[in-house]
Write a structure and sequence with these properties.
Order of helices and strands: EHEEHEHEHEEHEEHEHEHHHHH
Number of helices: 12
Shape: globular
Number of domains: 1
Strand content: 5-15%
Helix content: 40-55%
Largest sheet: 7 strands, parallel
Structural class: alpha/beta
CATH architecture: 3-Layer(aba) Sandwich
Strand order of the largest sheet: 3-2-1-4-5-6-10
Amino acid sequence: MTIPPLHTVLGASGATGRAVIQALQDRNLDIRAVGRSIAREDTENVRADLLGADEAQRAIEGSSHVYLCVGLPYRAKVWLRDWPRLMQNVIDACAAAEARLIFFDNVYMYGPPPLAVPFDESHPQQPVTKKGKARKQTADLFLKAVDEGKVKGLIGRSADFYGPYAVYSPFYISFLERMLEGKAPQALARPGVKHTYAYTLDNGRALVALALDESTYGEVWHLPVGRPITIEEVVEIFNEHLGTNYEVSFLPPFLQKLLSLFMTDLREAEKMNYQFETEYIMSYDKFKNHFPEFRATPYEEGIEKMIASFKENGGIR
């Protein structure tokens, strides 16, 4: 008797985990949703703290494919301490289960800034921030395990993302949340600087497409992004869908530094501001050439769906 594949999503309650589950459901695949607190219809639901090796083993046992979409608190100290430990636990559990591991990564390891325009998977990795160093250490740990044959896996790297349930997206924290409260949007970026963003549901579809293609393993892939766009253009799209006429205010660098002395969240975000000081444009040509039929969602469509999602749920905090 052949055992059907089981696709396990770690971090199933987050925006990316939810997007992966939706993409798997669209393909009628068997799913296990794993989180600290998670309950999804039509899936096997498991609660687990992946910082514990035994819990990671229990969560992953019996899986054929594992999607590591976990988010840790946005603190450099936490990332440096917990990401390598969590990754090692997941690697060991996947090796024991003979499961393929699909790691949802970000692009913080690239550096030093300013990055090439556009930058691709071959860009030098000399991160200048603690978060970037934590992500590089974690990805290197994973790729070493893949190279040594301990686990079969791949990395999908995402730009800053937005979409349904993406409460930590700059599109939500700085724009939508404020605009729904009747406040003008704010930005830490510089005016007129172009950036590329990923839509969460595109990330989910792309990760599953990679996972189901045997030829993609052992490699790093940049996930699809929209066209390069400025903050001002993004706010215009939000205004159009909300029926508002807000102008974005840009927080001057000196004021950011002053406020960051008293606001932990701003201090953590301010250290990543190099991404918004010059053009920060990610290339996903490698993915596009491998999956030529894949359609990246335009910002106009993605932002409309993001707004609808948060309105339906009354905000998600």
